[in-house]
Amino acid sequence: MISTWSEWKRYPRPGRGENIEAPITPGLYEVRFAGTGALHSFEAVDNVAQALAQLPVGAKSWFGRRDPAKLPDLEYRTCATSSKADAKAAAQRMIGRRETYMSGAA
Fold first, then answer.
1. Which run of H or of E encompasses 93?
2. In the 8-state DSSP scheme, what is residue 70?
3. Using 50, 70 and 90 to split pLDDT, how confident is the model at 37?
């Protein structure tokens, strides 16, 4: 079973004390560039919160820390499901709809 998508939230930046708000269950996440709405990443995963926390969002400096000036301004949303199989099925349906839309719009 699939639930509904959350609202778009700003992706946390290092050093600001912000947290990711996401389910610790299987589901989907979508990350986009805030300024353009262009897709950054999209995936069906076992643990949405963990996947978002491990998402590479910027370049690392020589000392292993992220340079806040070079990090993109990102937003994310999540959708919890009852299993990873449900998440994968929902992701495939969404990808199919996007491909259909894009082929019709071209």
1. helix 84-105
2. G
3. very high
Give, as one character, the DSSP assignment of residue 81. B
CB 95 within 8 A of CB 28: no
Residue 72: the pLDDT is 82
- Which residue in the block uniquely carries the two structure tokens 């071209």? 106
25 Cβ neighbours under 8 A, 6+ residues apart: 47, 48, 80, 81, 82
45 pLDDT tier (thresholds 50, 70, 90): very high
Output the six-digit token pair for 99.
Answer: 């491909």
Asked if 3 contacts 29 with a C-beta cutoff of 8 angstroms, the reply is no
On the 0-12 / 13-18 / 19+ scale of CB atoms within 10 A, 79 is: buried
> Could you tell me the pTM of the whole model?
0.77
